[in-house]
């Protein structure tokens, strides 16, 4: 996923369809100095983790 699009999605009040390895995630934060984002699984919000932006897909 493009960095600017990831930032737009993270700031959007509307939930977007974003996946990581086929599972829906919510983008909490996009790091300013790296191509990483902090996300959590929509099925389990307690599982927060960081991923490379290029591993996220918008459907």
Automatic annotation (TrEMBL):
Keywords: Sporulation
Chief location of this protein within or outside the cell: other
GO biological process, one term: sporulation resulting in formation of a cellular spore
Name assigned to this protein: Small, acid-soluble spore protein H
Lineage: Bacteria, Bacillati, Bacillota, Bacilli, Bacillales
Pfam families membership: SspH (PF08141)
Family: Belongs to the SspH family.
GO CC annotations, alphabetized: endospore-forming forespore
Record organism: Cerasibacillus quisquiliarum
Induction, per UniProt: Expressed only in the forespore compartment of sporulating cells.
Highest rank taxon of the organism: Bacteria
HAMAP family: SspH (MF_00667)
Locations listed in the record: Spore core
Originating gene: sspH
UniProt key word DNA-binding: no
